[in-house]
Fold:
Amino acid sequence: MNSTGSNSANAKGGPAVLTDFDDTAAVENVAELLLNRFADPSWQDVRRRFRDGEFTLKEYQEIAFNSIHASRSDMAEYVRDNAHLRPYFGELWDYCREWDVPMAVVSAGLDFYVEALIEGNGLTQVPVYAVDTDFTPAGISYEYRFVRPGMERMGNSKGLIVDQFREQGHYIIYIGDGMSDFEAAERADLVFAHRSLAEECARTGIPFRHFEDFRDVLAAVQDYVNIGTGTTEGRA
Ligand SMILES: [Mg+2]
Structure:
């Protein structure tokens, strides 16, 4: 791997792969899968108010999940039975481990359902940056460890997590679909986007590749490992 470059395209730390979870690493929106099955039907009204700008994503998620009385294990089982990792996620993880490329899931969602799907697929060591939950007799409690000072109402910042990897000298490959991914995509060297994130990147002029599954991401990481440099397209 090239360690002599001075720009982000051949960063001294090599590539790091950071991927969103709902609708990206997972085929489904797993949060909504759980809310449809276990939450009070009023959660859809809360989602509408979030989309109208009345609630932040953090507030919407907490209000909606607070109406659930199912156990953590029942929800984890439901996730394992009904959700799916997108093709080539496992192959990408195996390759990254083999070549010491950091790979992590970066989600605005809740840790327990992210981990249920990943571990249910036998991938027990994938790092997960998500909202930490604790199931207590009084309900679910939430902890946010990646909050920008003064931005507590927004919950975790994906951009903050990308910054931590950038500070280690990595060439950041980011994959996502939603508006909460935008601040991460803005900071990444190579972006794979679909859905709202692709529209927002196109609207704001941030270069991206269209994401379908992790095969193209795997090819990009292999290119970096084999050639010793990343593409410069994300930082044109
Ligand atoms: Mg998503």
User: Anything to note?
Assistant: The pocket of magnesium ion is lined by residues 20, 22-24, 176-178 (CB under 6 Å). The domain at 8-29+84-230 is CATH 3.40.50.1000 (Rossmann fold). The chain has one domain: 8-29+84-230. The mean pLDDT is 92.
